[in-house]
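I'll show an entry:

:::
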Amino acid sequence: MSRKITLPAPLAEFPWRVVIPLTLLVMFGAAVLHSAAGGSMSPYATSHLVRYGVFLTLALVMSRFPEEWARLAAIPVYAAIIFLLLLVEALGFVGGGSQRWLNLGFMTLQPSELMKPGIVLILAAFFHGMPAGMMGNWKALVVPGALMGLPMALVLIQPDLGTALAIGFGGAVVMFLAGIPRKWFIGGGLAALVAIPLAFFFGLHDYQRQRVLTFLDPESDPLGTGYHITQSKIAIGSGGIFGKGFGNGSQSALDYLPEPHTDFVFATMAEEWGLMGGIFVLLVFGIVLRWGMQVARDANGVFPRLLAGGMTATIFFYVGVNLMMVMGLAPVVGIPLPFMSHGGSSMMTNMICVGSLMMVERWNRQASRPGF
C-alpha cells in the first residue's frame, strides 16, 4: 500500500511555483550581465543576484501580511510615494537628462517606480469600499482619475514618459476589472485618438518626438537617433537559432549595443543564446504571468482580485513594452526587462508585485480551508 507523502506546512505553503522559475530567470540574467561586463561578475551580475535575494526576502515577508494590513496601508503608501516624487523635484539628481533619482547612500532610488504597484494598491482599496451600484457614478471615474493623474503629472515633469504610461496602464486595468462601464473606456479611447496628435506636437519633448519618428523609420538615421533600435535588431538577428555562444556576443563586447545591461539586455541575451534563449525567457514570463492570473481569478473579494490583477498587469507591461522596444515594435521609452536587467529600482518594483501576488495567494488558501 502506497503512502502519500505530506510536506511540512512551511514547505507546502512556500510559493515554489513562482520562486523556482523566477530564480532560474534571475540566474540566467546574471549570466547575461556577466557577458555584458566583458566576462566579469562585477559590477552587474553580483549586485543583480544580491538584490534578488534581498527583495525575494522582502516579498516573502510581504506574503505574510493579512488583508486588513494591506488595505490600511494603501493611503499611507500612496501619500509617501507622492512625497518622494515631490522630493525628487526638489533634491533629486540629474542623470541622462532626467531628474528621477534620490541618493539614499546604500542605493539610488527611483520613486516613480514605486508608484507602479502603489497606484494598483490605492485603487484596489478605493473600489473595495465602493458599493457595486455606484460603479456608474462620476466618483468611480473622477476620483481614480485624480489618483492616477497626480503621480503621472509629477513623473512627466522629470521627464519619464515610459513610467507615466506604466502607471496609467496599471490604474486603467484596475478600473476595468472593477467594473467601470465600458462606454467610459470607449469614450476615453476616442478622446486619446484626438489627444495623441496634440500631445505629439505640444506635449512631448524634442527627444521624445524624435524617438517616435525613429520608431517609425529607424533606418532614416542609423548612426544617430535610430542607432539603438538598429543595433538591437542586428544583435537579435545575428544570434540565429542557438546563438553565438556564451561570452561571444560581439555587439555588446565591442560596445555597438547601447545599454546592454539594462534596457537592451534581451538583445545581449539573444545574440549569445539565440532563439532558444528567447523562448526560455518568454516561457518563464508566461509561467509567472499565468500564475498571477490564476491568483487573481481565485481571489475571494474585490480588493484581493483587483490587487492581484493589477500587479500582474504591471509585470506584463514591463515585459511587453521592453520586448517590443528592443525588437523595434515600439519606441524606446527606457523600460527595463524584469528580473534580467540590472537595476535596483526595477527589481524592487517587480518583487513588490510578486510579493503582493504571494500575499493574495495565501489569502486564497486561507479562505478555502474548511471552517475559515
About this structure: Strands lie at 93-95, 98-103, 108-109. Residues 20-366 form one domain. The chain has a mean pLDDT of 84.
